[in-house]
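Hi U.,

Before I forget, here's the chain from the pilot set. I'm dumping it here mostly so it's searchable later in email.
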Amino acid sequence: MNSVDLHTLTGAYVLDALEPAERAAVERHLADCASCAQEVRELSETVTRLGLAVAAQPGPALRDEVMRRIGTVRQEAPTTVRSARGGHVRPRWRWAPNWALAACFAAAVALGGVAVSQYEQAREAREQALQARIANDAVGAVLASADARVSTAPLRGGAVGTVVVSPSRNQAVFAASGMPAPPSGKVYQLWYNDGGGRMRSAGLMDSGTPAAATLMHGPVDAASGMGITVEPAGGSPRPTSTPVALLAFPTA
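Structure:
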């Protein structure tokens, strides 16, 4: 412990990488060394800013270059500082061991990665909430339209399907009661039946809540009805399975 220059432990101190005895020694040193105390404040602020920064994850090339230079580039030229207790001036070398520099870099990258991940999760959650609100408003508008027409029909397995069509809005809403969840890795996909065997995608049902009302994507136009198929996750450009349900749109 006596052979270690306490001036070189500021980086490890900020990263909480010291043994209890070393940490206590550094804290005693900071009370007498204004220069080291200032360095600790600056390093703490830097690590915090790096952790909160919204930036791209550094690539492998950057990390390799930093690790290569750690062993060859000195941290900073020597400076002179005035002792907090006396008036004499003494030289101070601001060196840090290679492992401390590497630890600082690794911690900065880790904190930055966590911040980016948390930011992306929050952004995705906000976007999902916004899309859900827009969809709910659109569903409500179709159901509340003065010319809304409703048709109900039994589905396979005892489920019941209901479709509401609004000619003035050129939109349709579908809901199912008692419909089982699709098989693992599959989704329910809705289709407009344009006649003559032509089926046009109308989007996916929410696999987590198959009983919820779903705004069918795209305009109704001349579609006479709708169908439901089981498709791979993400949906298909055209039906790949026999429809599990076919419903005619209400005409009046």
